[in-house]
Design a protein that fits this description.
The protein has 22 helices and 19 strands. The chain is an alpha/beta fold and 599 residues long. The strands form 3 sheets. Strands 1, 2, 3, 4, 5, 6, 7, 8, 9, 12, 13, 14 and 15 form a 13-stranded mixed sheet that branches. Strands 17-16-18-19 form a 4-stranded parallel sheet.
Amino acid sequence: MRVSQLTIENFRGIKKAVLQFTGHTLLIGGNNVGKSTVCEALDLVLGPDRLNRSSPVEEFDFRNAGYLAADGETPVPIRIQAILTDLTDDIKTMCAANLEFWHKVERRLLGEGEIAAADDPNVEFCLRLITIAKYDIEDDQFVARTVYGRGDEDADGEPKAIPSRVKRSIGFLYLRTIRTGSRALSLERGTLLDNILRMKEARKGMWESIRTRLASLEPPIDAEATELGPILDEIEARLAEYIAPGGDGRSTRLFVSQLTREHLRKTISFFLTMGKGEGAVPFQQAGTGTLNTLVLALLTFIADIKRDNVIFAMEEPEIALPPHTQRRIANYLLEETSQCFVTSHSPYVIERFEPDGIVKLNRDEHGDLSGTAIKLPTGMKAKNYRQNFRRAIAEAMLGQAVIVGEGITEQDALLVVAQKMEDNNPDLFQLDVAGVSVINADGDGNLEKMGAFFKEIGVPAFAFFDRKKRTADDIKALQDTYVVACEISHKGAETMMANEVPVVRQWQYLDALREQDTDGHFGIPTARPDDAAIRALTVSTLKGLKGEGGAARLLELCTPAELPATLTKFLSDIYQRYPKPKRKKPEPDAAKAVAPAKA
C-alpha cells in the first residue's frame, strides 16, 4: 500500500498543495520550504494516534494562524486528503463500501458515469482519506477528524469517520529523528517503543500488572531507613491536628510514581549499558549517533512486525551519523518498507534514491507548494548518472544555484579562485554559504544535458567551459539552458592559466613540482628556461596532473591580483547575483529619540 496523491490546504506555511508520489519518495528543498509540513500532514491523515490527543492541532497549525475568517466567526479549516493505492486485501475488506477507482496514468479519481472505465488495466481500487481540522467556536477548542472520501451514507449525513483499526492497518509511522529521538525508547504515546508494544499486543494487561506490583511494595520507599522518617512523622502529627488519621500505621507514604498509566509512561525509562564494566544508564545519555542507531534498530523491528505493510515518514536520518550508517538507513527504508517519505540534506542519503523518487519542493510567496519530480537529462543513461554524477547532482539539487565546470580542472580552478577572492574581499557572500555548488560535467558532451537538468528542476546554473568548434545550434542550446554560459577564449583551461598567471608563479609551481618528480616524468629543468618554455611546461604538467589537483597547486601560489582574469570575471558576475545580505541597523532607542521639553 502506498500514498499516490496528497492534497494540503491551509496547513502551516502551505496555502495549497497537490503532490503526486510514485513510490519511495525523497523530499528535498530549501529550509522552511515545507518538507516537514508534508510529513506532518501525512501524520494527521494517516497516523493512528495524533487525533486522539486532547488538541490535535493548535493555532499555528493553521496558515498564518488564520483559523477564523474576517468576520471572526466562520471557521477556516485545515483540509488534508490522501489517496492510497496498491491496497492490501485487509484494507479492501474493511473498507469495501468506501473504495473508489484511481487512474494510474492520468493520476485522477474516476468520476460519476465512468464505471465502464473500471476494467481498464490502468485503473485500480483506491481509498481516499480526508482529515478536517477546525476551531469549534462554541466549545472554544480545536477539533479534527478523519473521514472516508466516499461513503454509502446519505448525501445529507455526516461522512463516516475512519476507525482506529483501519488506521493501524495502514501502518503509518512518522519519525521525527532529531526532535523525538530522545523519546524513541520511552513508553510515551506514539514513540517507537510504544508502537512496537501496540503491534505486538503487549500492552494488554501490562499497565495493570505494573501498577499492582508498584502499589504492593511494602513500604514503597523505605522512609524509616532514611532521614525522611522523622519528617513524615512530623507531617503526620501536624495533619492530625486538623484531620483525624484513618487506618493503622502510617497515613503518608512515598511511591515511585503517581501510578496512573500516563505518569508511568513518562516515568519508566529504558536503560542501556554503554561499555564493558560500565553500569546501565538512561538511554538519553547515549551519544546522538548511538541514539539514532537505536532508532534504526527499532525501525527494523517494526518493519519485521508489519513486513507487508508499513509506510515510514522520516526526517533527516543523517543527523549525527557517519556516511555508512546513513546509507544503511536509506537502503533499509527502500528495501524493507511498502513506501517511505524521507527528508534529507545529505548527499549520502540522496544518492540512494533513483531520480524519479526525488521530489524537489518549491513554495511561492502566496503559500502554494509544488513538487517537481527529478528527471534525468535527455540522453543521460541511468548507468552514467550512477557512476559519474550522482553525488554531484545530489549536492547541487540542495543549493540555490550551481556552477558547472567542464571538467575536473575547471572545477578545481573555480574552487581555489573563489576561496581567494572571498578571503581578499569580506564583502563577497561566500559561495557555499550562499548555497552555490561547484561541480564538473565530466566532459564537454555532458554540458548541455546538465544544463537542461538543472533548468528543469529550477536550479539556476552557470557554465564554464573550453573553446571548441561548436555550431550555432550548440551555442544556442547552452545559452538557453544556462543563466551564464562562459566559453573561455583559450583551447583549454590549462592554456588559459599558462597565459594569464604570471610566469614567476608558474616557475615557482614547476620548481616545487620538480622536487616531487623524482623520476623526471615531467622533464622540468633545474635552471629556469625562457617564458615560452615555462608556459609549455605548465600546460603539459597541468594536463598530466588532471584530477590530481595540479591547477589548485598553481593557483594557490597566486595573490588575488595574479589570479586568471577569465576566472575572476566569471565569478564576479555570480557574486553580484548573490550579494551578501545586509545587516539591519538597530532601531534608535525611542526614549532617547524624544527631545527633552523646553522649560
